[in-house]
Amino acid sequence: MASIFTKIISGEIPSYKVAENEDFIAFLDINPNAKGHTLVVPKKEENKIFDLSKQEYIELMEFSYRVAKAIEKTVPCKRVGMSVIGLEVTHVHVHLIPLNAMADIQFKEKVTVSKEEFLNLSEKIASNFE
Ligand code: 5GP
Among residues 59, 55, 56, 79, which one has the least CA distance to residue 69? Predict the structure, then answer.
C-alpha cells in the first residue's frame, strides 16, 4: 500500500509544498514542532534512511541542505535542526525544524498554524529555495 507521503507526492493528498525535483519533495509538516517545520522526502518509497544507497543518501542530504538554507532565510530562528525518525510514517523523511529552544526538536509540544500561515510560509520558503 502506498505511504501517505507517496500519496502527497502523487497529489492524491494535498500538502504545502516548498520544493521539488525529479527525486525529492519538501513540504510543511502538518503537525509542526515549530512554524516552518519541513519534511524532505525521497520520491522512491523506502522505509529506513540507512537502507537508501549511499548515493541516494548523499543526494537526500544535498537537497535537505538547500531546503534548510531556504528555511533559514524565511523563518527567524537560532538555527535549523535536523532529525530523522520515521516511527510514524515509514517512508524516509528528514525533519528540518527552525529551533529557538531544545523543546523545538523534542516532538512533544506542537504549534498551531492556520491555513493562511501554512500557505504563506510554504510560498516564502519556496521563493527562497535555490
Ligand atoms: P515520524 O515518522 O518521523 O515519527 O513523523 C512523521 C511526521 O509526519 C510527523 O511529524 C507528522 O506530523 C507528519 N505527518 C504525518 N502525516 C502527514 C500528512 O498527511 N501531511 C503532512 N504534511 N505531514 C504529515
Answer: 79
CA distance 119 to 54: 34
Is residue 86 lining ligand 1, measured as CB closer than 6 Å?
Answer: yes
Q: Is 16 in the pocket of ligand 1 (CB under 6 A)?
A: no
pLDDT for 1 equals 87
Q: Is the pTM of this model over 0.90?
A: yes
> Which residues make Cβ contacts (< 8 Å) with residue 108, sequence separation at least 6?
none
Asked if residue 122 has its Cβ within 6 Å of ligand 1, the reply is: no
Assigned C-alpha cell, 69: 538554507
Cα-Cα end-to-end distance for the chain: 33
- Domains and their CATH numbers in the chain: 4-128 (3.30.428.10)
- The pLDDT averaged over each successive group of 10 residues in the chain (130 residues) is 96 98 98 98 98 98 98 98 98 98 96 98 98
Pocket test for ligand 1, best of 3, 27, 29 (most atoms within 8 A of CB): 29
